[in-house]
């Protein structure tokens, strides 16, 4: 664990440190199948409106009984994860999740203090908002980093603050309080979540345990129906989904 992560969370937490852009080194076998017919959502609704939190600390969107279950281990400060969100999220959701054939789960894999802060805020609202908030945060990741770099003294002060103040200060320095407020999460809600150190500790522990159990060493790392994929960007993942029947 790096020194910044030790500052980020009170000891004795042990956060898994993800290497951005890493990912799986091998598959456990391809999934192939005939084309799967679309599965209608409940009358008057869309599968894109169906979301929930999983026991592994992830957030799943789509048909919970979808025959194809895509899981992404992702860091909110990972540039490769941001690229997947930019290039893959829309076609994945609109072409495959909306059909009811594929469900998509993001499992946060924490790697640094800013990641902890963004992930906590993305999880602060309803499960239905997690994917959209995460995608929008990835799109603005460069700006958050620039905000921290341009105010190094405030960043250092945040990291030295008591745990119940640390992430609020970091969020303010990075511009995250205003960013999430503009997207429906009030400043009061954000501060309440960022001062809930017990919940943040639970998020971190869940991330670490899931990462260890599934041998996650980098982000993004994808699984389809429990099978680790070599590919970690949309141009490689879409053909895998299609071969499995999502077409």
TrEMBL record:
It comes from the Bacteria. Transmembrane segments: none annotated. The keyword Signal applies. Residues 56-238 form the Thioredoxin-like fold domain. Residues 1-24 form the signal peptide. Keywords: Signal. PROSITE patterns: PROKAR_LIPOPROTEIN. This is DsbA family protein. Pfam families: Thioredoxin_4. Coiled coil: none annotated. InterPro entries: Thioredoxin-like_fold, Thioredoxin-like_sf.
């Amino acid at each position: 664990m790096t020194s910044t992560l030790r500052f980020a969370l009170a000891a004795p937490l042990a956060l898994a440190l993800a290497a951005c852009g890493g990912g799986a080194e091998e598959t456990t076998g391809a999934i192939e199948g005939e084309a799967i017919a679309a599965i209608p959502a409940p009358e008057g609704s869309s599968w894109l409106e169906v979301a929930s939190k999983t026991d592994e600390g992830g957030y799943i969107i789509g048909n919970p009984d979808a025959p194809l279950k895509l899981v992404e281990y992702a860091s909110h400060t990972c540039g490769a994860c941001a690229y997947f969100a930019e290039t893959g999220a829309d076609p994945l959701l609109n072409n495959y999740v909306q059909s009811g054939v594929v469900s998509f789960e993001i499992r946060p894999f924490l790697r640094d203090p800013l990641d902890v802060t963004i992930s906590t805020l993305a999880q602060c609202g309803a499960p239905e908002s997690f994917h959209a908030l995460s995608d929008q945060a990835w799109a603005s990741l460069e700006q958050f980093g620039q905000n921290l770099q341009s105010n190094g003294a405030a960043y250092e002060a945040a990291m030295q603050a008591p745990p119940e103040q640390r992430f609020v200060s970091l969020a303010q320095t990075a511009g995250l309080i205003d960013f999430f407020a503009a997207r429906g999460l009030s400043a009061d809600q954000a501060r309440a979540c960022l001062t809930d150190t017990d919940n943040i500790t639970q998020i971190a522990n869940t991330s670490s345990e899931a990462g260890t159990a599934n041998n996650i060493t980098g982000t993004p790392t994808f699984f389809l129906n429990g099978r680790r994929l070599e590919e970690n960007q949309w141009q490689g993942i879409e053909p895998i989904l299609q071969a499995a029947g999502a077409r």
